[in-house]
Design goal:
The complex is a heterotrimer of chains A (319), B (273) and C (500). Chain A contains twelve helices and no strands. With 319 residues, chain A is mainly α. The radius of gyration of chain A is 24 Å and the shape is globular. Chain A starts with a helix and ends in an 11-residue tail after the last helix. The chains are: A mainly alpha (319), B mainly alpha (273), C alpha+beta (500).
Chain lengths: 319, 273, 500
């Protein structure tokens, strides 16, 4: 067990380091230059050269990479080129705000996704199950960006129920307004994922319910509820957990779009700003943070899976 | 062979109809998709303009028809790319094990660590946008997943008896891959592929929404939705029409994928993603 | 803990019924919606409209521009100039305090301009002030500028956004904590979210009625519109022309739009084919009716023009008729004479994220097709413009904000040695050069007008590109916002504004 953990952890470290190289490489292949961006269209060539010198942009690439990488290890993300302030606090503040969205979303997805999936599996064929299945088909197929637009049209423009802007600081606006502002962006993020997770849980539960172990337990006369809880549920949860980890990635992707549309000042929006303005330190810092979170989520899922696995017999090998 | 599931039929028919409409689009559209008509701007849906008109007076229905092929090409093209690159990689990893496998799977881990939207954004920020490049980018984004699935399938099959028998007969690696593994690997691969098409269409239209796909005045559905944003309050049909069609296409493709899964490999119903 | 089903269903209604305390106007803070992130808080480096608004809240200049575009004294009480227009003496106001307490003196003024002129600062507007040769401060309240050439409009250009007076001892903090003398004190900036300002209680003018200002950054226009209708915002800055119709109907919200000299157009590179031939440039101007373009792109919120001089300006050459319809025959004939018998295929670059200019590109492409122009649209993010597009691409869509004087709006762009011409269209016309130089040498507006009219006449015969229209600038205000003016330079003068 420990050797497995050690190997996985080492793999994550390797992936993170390789990410820094990849991110650096891609960002520096991007056309355009930040000096041009800052100085505007009419900059003279020597003004551009002077600015690039000042910003350290004309040093060889490996030197720039090394400076950046060693800075990262110290926790220093460098200076935002366009905003002339340290990039670290900007990234971390944005991360904090996105984390609010993400954690509320993940919790909702886990609770509602698993809950609805179990309900569906134990009430197969009823109206609620059929209704749920129909909704699942729908929600999985709606693109994030379209959801945002639909939701804005319905709730903010036509009905005027909910505030259309995504963020009100908690200390300023009080709890209810803060929560109100989060309803639209969070629901846009979670609906597709809840559909996805609940489908998965439903089919896993169904398969587990029909498995040999459950039949054997039933034959022994164990009450249905205990059968479900001890034997069917754990088998159903396993794929759900791995899927939740993958969903973190989808959530991150969704967050980028949702934050733009709802004007939520999180990491996704900061990243788009950085890409639009060629703010290299901000871009690289943001991407490393996002991929680190993603890699760690995958690691967590792998660990959970391994921990739960030996205690449960799973039918067939997992893909 | 099982009876063809209803889901497959229904989904297949819808997708088929959309494909036919997309292919015939330019010819059956009631108006020129590009034609400006200043007197008929921002008109709501009516008998003349089934989906209304946009800010230039262009007929939204005609534009939706003309743009349909982008989403279809994106979905199927990108998936085929990921198949063509990912499956051989995965099968080789499964077969060779050892050093080759490690290298391939580490690379896969790396690519999977980047959220798809980000990867697509980066690939496209480097080049000029366009349908082909977006298709390539989306295809590349999904190569790692295909590789993983192909490897898992390969590992499963390698344990089977007939492969042992082939090895005992002295058949070389390539032969085994081509003659024994590939023919049996198709069912789970096809199922995975059909699911990928949904995601490929989604990612492709998300990238177009962000400005990195086909260019104006092409009427790719994601681009149309993006261009409709300034007019949401005044003329929501400009964005609703392509959006709802996109949803319809995605649901249909999803249903086909489910149907294929029911047909080809009911065992897979319980598997994780 | 399981929430009873009925209670769970009631939750959304409960949440939305909560009293909207924070939006009641007890705090007197004006909430303005902006569309993009501010990159720079330092006046010397501001380039976009949102940053211009910021600069006017926190800083003052030597002179100030009113909403009717006339100039009045601000930090300079009065000024005199020598007959040769090369020596200018400004008397500074006394007792003006910076936000950190120190009095503003001549040294601060000199530090400001020295900084602008220093290439290391990287100030975009440096070339606008290259006539300043020397500055002197005989006493703490007097500044003398010695110019290398005569410039009649010198006092005017000192009102511009980039030359607001900064504190000489707070230069390093400008990016994070800008200190000025303006009506509002900078409090905080959360990038991507909002900037917060508070009233300056020690202002040299009467303190503002508003307690403070918040600029909120909301990129999605539909969100801004929904927010102002819901009362979450007081002002929407730069309302797009497509949204003006929608808001004119709304209760509680009024829309105000003014003519400005901000213009958009297609920049055609005069040094590479196909637009290096004046006949091809002329053909494009004839083939696409500017009236149609203004209607299509701006929904009527703007008017066609020949040059960066706006149609409502006294110097506009109103006797040169702008044709109401395209002249396709003449356009095609010119193209044939220039050697293009079939279609001309040209890439046309349009900026991502600027919906009005994107519409201009699509409109131009569509309308120019019948004359034989086959434009291939490429959407390029604006961040790549200066590196790849400006001065290099054969045709691209761009636009420029209004400048404080006609000279600064025309000379850098249109004079063959203009500082911005080289990275724009590389245009050269001796008649235009002569007119621009002559206009500078006179202080008499009638004389200046004749020169600028001559310039416009020359531009119509030899167009540098396709200057489409001068756009109106519109803002939306909630009815509770009183005594606020929409300024054609796109900033807000909030000295007497209040919320009722």
């Amino acid at each position: 067990m420990t050797s497995f953990l050690a190997r996985r952890f080492a793999s994550v470290i390797f992936v993170l380091w390789a990410m820094t190289v990849l991110v650096f490489a891609i960002v520096h292949v991007l056309p355009g230059s930040v000096a041009h961006m800052i100085l505007g269209e009419f900059a003279t060539t020597d003004a551009i050269a002077a600015l690039e010198e000042r910003l350290g942009l004309n040093q060889p690439l490996y030197v720039q990479y090394w400076t950046w990488f060693t800075g990262l290890l110290r926790g220093d993300f460098g200076m935002s080129l366009t905003m002339e302030r340290p990039a670290g606090p900007v990234i971390l503040e944005a991360l904090g705000r996105s984390a609010i969205l993400a954690s509320i979303s993940i919790v909702l997805v886990a609770i509602l996704g698993i809950g609805l999936g179990i309900h569906s599996a134990t009430h197969v064929g009823t109206w609620s199950d059929r209704g749920l299945t129909l909704m699942q088909y729908f929600f999985i197929a709606v693109p994030e960006f379209f959801w945002c637009i639909l939701v804005i049209i319905f709730f903010a423009v036509w009905l005027g129920w909910l505030p259309a802007t995504g963020y009100a600081p908690l200390h300023e606006a009080g709890f209810w307004r803060w929560a109100q502002h989060l309803i639209l962006p969070v629901s846009t993020l979670v609906l597709g994922l809840i559909a996805h997770v609940s489908r998965l849980v439903r089919s896993s539960m169904l398969e587990a319910i029909e498995s040999r172990y459950v039949l054997a337990a039933r034959a022994k006369g164990i009450p249905e509820r205990i059968v479900l809880r001890r034997h069917a549920l754990p088998n159903a949860l396993l794929p759900a957990i791995t899927v939740l980890a993958v969903d973190v990635g989808i959530l991150i992707g969704g967050i980028v779009v949702v934050e733009s549309v709802f004007a939520f000042p999180g990491l996704g929006r900061m990243l788009i700003y950085a890409i639009d303005n060629q703010d290299i330190p901000l871009m690289m810092g943001g991407m490393i943070v996002i991929t680190a979170i993603y890699a760690l989520a995958n690691l967590a899922a792998d660990i959970l899976y391994a921990v739960l696995n030996p205690r449960i017999r799973v039918s067939g090998s997992a893909g | 062979m099982n009876r063809i599931p209803r889901t497959l039929l229904v989904g297949g028919v819808i997708v088929g109809v959309i494909c036919i409409l997309a292919a015939l689009g330019p010819w059956i559209a009631p108006f020129e998709p590009d034609a400006f008509n200043m007197r008929a701007r921002l008109q709501p849906p009516s008998t003349t303009y089934w989906f209304g008109t946009d800010e230039f007076g262009r007929d939204v229905f005609s534009r939706v028809l003309a743009g349909a092929h982008h989403s279809l090409l994106m979905g199927f093209g990108a998936t085929i790319i990921s198949l063509v690159i990912g499956v051989p990689l995965g099968l080789i990893a499964a077969f060779r094990r050892g050093w080759t496998e490690e290298a391939i799977m580490r690379g896969v881990d790396l690519m999977i660590s980047i959220p798809p939207v980000l990867l697509g954004l980066l690939i496209l920020a480097v080049t000029e946008p366009g349908l082909l490049k977006t298709m390539l980018a989306v295809g590349l984004v999904y190569v790692p997943i295909m590789t993983r699935v192909a490897r898992a399938v390969g590992l499963d099959l390698l344990a089977e008896d007939f492969v042992e028998a082939a090895r005992a007969r002295g058949e070389g690696g390539f032969h085994i891959l081509a003659r024994e593994i590939l023919p049996n690997a198709w069912p789970p691969l096809i199922v995975e592929t059909s699911l990928r098409v949904t995601f490929a269409i989604l990612l492709g239209s998300a990238l177009s929404f962000l400005g990195l796909g086909p260019q104006p005045p092409d009427s790719e559905w994601g681009l149309m939705i993006a261009e409709s944003r300034p007019f949401i309050s005044e003329a929501p049909w400009i964005g609703l029409a392509p959006g709802l069609c996109l949803c319809l296409l995605l649901i249909a493709v999803n249903v086909v994928g489910e149907g294929l899964r029911d047909l080809l490999d009911p065992r897979l119903r319980g598997r994780g993603h | 803990m399981l929430i009873p089903r009925r209670a769970a269903l009631a939750l959304p209604a409960l949440l939305t019924a909560m009293p909207d305390i924070a939006s009641a106007q007890s705090s007197g803070v004006l909430r303005i919606a902006m569309s993009t992130n501010l990159r720079n808080l330092d006046p010397a480096k501001v380039t976009i409209g949102e940053e211009f608004a910021h600069v006017v809240f926190v800083f003052n200049g030597l002179t100030r521009m009113r909403a009717d575009q006339s100039i009045e004294p601000e930090l300079a009480e009065s000024w005199t100039f020598s007959p040769d227009l090369k020596t200018w003496e400004f008397k500074l106001r006394r007792g003006v305090k910076f936000h950190h307490g120190r009095e503003m003196v001549a040294n601060d003024v000199i530090a400001t301009y020295r900084r602008i002129l220093d290439p290391a600062t990287g100030a975009v507007s440096r070339t606008n002030y290259d006539m300043i040769e020397r500055m002197e401060a005989p006493d703490p309240y007097t500044v003398i500028f010695r110019l290398s050439y005569a410039y009649g409009g010198f006092a005017d250009i000192l009102s511009d956004r980039q030359v607001k007076i900064i504190a000489a001892d707070r230069i390093d903090d400008l990016a994070t904590n800008p200190i000025g003398t303006g009506p509002f004190v900078f409090r905080s900036y959360a990038p991507g979210d909002r900037i917060v300002y508070a009233r300056n209680p020690n202002s040299w003018e009467a303190p503002t009625k508003l307690d403070g200002v918040e600029m909120r950054i909301l990129p999605e226009m539909s969100v801004r519109i929904a927010a102002i209708q819901a009362g979450d915002l007081d002002v929407v800055w730069d309302l797009g022309p497509e949204n003006i119709r929608a808001l004119r109907e709304a209760r509680n919200v009024r829309v105000d739009s003014v003519e400005t000299a901000s213009w958009d157009g297609a920049i055609l590179n005069n040094s590479i084919p196909p637009f290096n031939d004046v006949r091809v440039r002329l053909a494009l101007n004839l083939a696409v009716s500017k009236a149609d373009v203004a209607e299509a792109v701006l929904f009527g919120e703007g008017s066609p023009t020949h040059s960066p001089i706006a149609p409502n300006h006294p110097f506009f050459a109103s006797d040169i008729i702008i044709p109401a319809r395209a002249d396709l025959t003449r356009a095609r004939r010119l193209l044939r004479e220039a050697g293009h018998s079939g279609n001309i295929r040209v890439p046309l670059i349009i900026p991502v994220g600027r919906p009005v200019r994107e519409r201009l590109g699509v409109t131009l492409q569509q309308m120019a097709r019948t004359a034989g122009f086959d434009f291939d649209i490429q959407r390029v993010p604006f961040s790549r413009y200066s590196a790849e597009v400006a001065g290099k691409a054969p045709a691209y869509i761009d636009g420029y904000f209004a400048r404080p004087t006609v000279d600064t709006a025309t000379f850098p762009f249109l004079h063959s040695r203009g500082s911005q011409n080289e990275r724009l269209w590389k245009y050269s016309d001796p008649r235009v050069d002569a007119a621009l130089e002559a206009a500078r040498l006179s202080g008499d507006t009638e004389v200046q007008k004749t020169h600028y009219v001559a310039m416009q006449r020359a531009m119509v015969e030899n167009p540098p590109g396709y200057i489409a229209y001068a756009q109106r600038f519109a803002c939306a205000y909630r009815n509770s916002v009183r005594d606020i003016q929409t300024h054609p330079m796109r900033w807000f003068d909030l000295r007497t504004t209040y919320l009722s």
